[in-house]
Design goal:
67% of the residues lie in helices and 4% in strands. By secondary structure, the protein is mainly alpha-helical. A two-stranded antiparallel sheet has the order 1-2. The model has no long low-confidence stretch (mean pLDDT 75).
Length: 108
Amino acid sequence: MDTDSWLLLAVFVIGLVALLGFFITKTKGFGRYATSTFLLLLVLIIAGLLFTHDKLDGHVLANLLFAVIGFAGGLFTGKDSACSKPKAELAVPNGTVSDALQAKRPSP
């Protein structure tokens, strides 16, 4: 076997070990993080195989790696984003907006 075949085999084995490790350590079900991590692993494995087989340019692989890093960074810092933080209360003449809304709702 030549060097290219060994390199392709090595990338395949590393990818297979990564997928097996993912499924062994994963909890039950596919939530937001498990699905995203699985897709990122697949993208990286396929890109690595294509790159070692000279079907993917180095610049494209670099862009793909930066995209994966950016997506993963957003995935893990997404909990602390502005969307999940409590909204600030706006001041109105008689208290806050939520107080004004509560006053307008009829009680059950």
